[in-house]
Amino acid sequence: MQTFEIKEDFLLDGKPIKIISGAIHYFRMTQNQWEDSLYNLKALGANTVETYIPWNIHEPIEGTFDFSGMKDVVAFVELAQEMGLYVILRPSVYICAEWEFGGLPAWLLKDGLIRLRSTDKIFMEKVENYYHELLPKLRPLQVTQGGPVIMMQIENEYGSYGMEKEYLLATKKIVESYGIDVPLFTSDGSWKEVLDAGSLIDEDVFVAGNFGSQSLKNAAILKDFITEHNKKWPIISMEYWDGWFNRWGNDIIKRDPQDLADEVEDMLSVGSINLYMFHGGTNFGFYNGCSARGNTDLPQVTSYDYDALLNESGQPTEKYYLVQKAIKKVCPDVWQAEPRVKELDNVGSFPIDKSVSLFHTKDDIVKSTYSSYPLTMEQASSGYGYLLYDFELKNYHHENKFKVIEASDRLKIYADESLIATQYQETNGEELMLQGNPDSDTIHMDVLVENLGRVNYGYKLNNTTQMKGIRGGVMYDIHFHQGFKHYPLTLSKEQLAAIDFDKESNPSHPSFYQSTFNLENVKDTYIDCSAYGKGVVVVNGINLGRYWDKGPHLSLYCPKEFLNVGENEIIIFETEGKHITNVTFSDTPVYV
């Protein structure tokens, strides 16, 4: 057993310790990657690893919990301890982290009645239910119980969202009721307003700052805030931003490696540090987050490379070696070593064997749900992926007005299986003119809506726009239409296994493409998506995430653990009418 206290210094068994930490998110990489990443963190000169714990992957369906495989946070923490690292855990129900909805589960939006991150009775009941499953798993991992966990966070950047101290106190009470006795902390930006709104400093909850530049200035602001509240605590940047995330259609954001090393040296001269990110990893599946600028949502890309010290695949970068030198300069007694490197491979190019139109196999892969008015994604299913709305309009044999009211995010609108519009952001809700087939008394409509990722930061967390799919309705002429079949497309293993590739193919439709091939050896690799339009790639039942030809990334990282020695199956869901003929691998990422 050990003790960890926060007084004028961080004290481990009564002795001062400078925390040198890096962020590794267990849920953004395979279990087999954990060891190399943790080793490289220790070899950098670090003594601690930090990770968030996202609520939405551990309770994907309300009341159903999952801590297996890549979600096994206990195994990750235990491995860190085996490798000689302490652990900072951030199990707050909101994490930001450029992660879908900031880690909040989509099912919280199902009724549209809950006020998130507040003392709303229903919200706090959901928090209590989640913590009832999570915290007993974390309690034995504390240093006070013989584990490596030295600190835990109760809320994240709350001062950038709210100021309800009663909510923070209620969360603290729940956490402590489950035997969590290591120091608790909050973490906010480095300016007084957010530190004041988001902290519980007067309740002796430790205050950390999030910043990644102007180290001496930001550390001084944090110190002044702590001193004003009559505390003598040490300084730590809990998120020292060493890079940045990327959005679809924007240039990749890079930071000068030497500038980072110089700033890290400054930060270590006055306090402790957690490098965010040390190894970013990948937003597999549908878990990428979304920024918001005004009324515009800015979805983030699948890669969470972050321009970090280790790149997306785990390779040390120039930043790694320069920061390693900076740490040694300030802390000459730290243990350091050469990092581990890995070899990536282009495992080949393989033809597409089969393809089928979504419209012709939709009834094979999912049972539709009927409703008079359109359901949202949260009401119809899990709230992730795509939702296809299927309905019939009466053909009046002349042009008629048509529009979709209040929908998020991106719509592909088809009349009699022909694309008539793609609507997104600026054009959502625009009026269209429909002209039916003169030989038919009906117009068959399909509206495919894609959830591109819920916002992970800011006021929109409580905005109804984060309910995905069609919220308002569909108008024909000047009235709301009734009668919809709903096909939720989560692209689960079960759905993909049910695709009937013997049915009709039509590349102009949203389509599934299948390639089966054999491999004699497997290595980490990338799938080159530069010939594709927009969609997702699924490797042996595992969703690698989204691709989009607007870039900046035109490839998807594929860890070797997702590939098989022997037979492999790749299924591509392409929504933009691109005719896909090959699956091509690459040993390097592909960019615009």
Description:
- By secondary structure, the protein is α+β, with helices and mostly antiparallel strands.
- The chain folds into three domains: 19-330, Alpha-Beta Barrel (TIM Barrel); 349-354 and 498-586, Sandwich (Jelly Rolls); 367-489, Jelly Rolls, CATH 2.60.120.260.
- The chain has twelve helices and 32 strands.
- An eight-stranded parallel β-barrel has the order 4-5-6-7-8-9-10-11, surrounded by six helices. A six-stranded antiparallel beta sheet has the order 16-25-17-22-19-20, covered by helices on one side. Strands 15-26-31-28-29 form a five-stranded antiparallel beta sheet.
- The N and C termini lie far apart (52 Å).
- The model has no long low-confidence stretch (mean pLDDT 97).
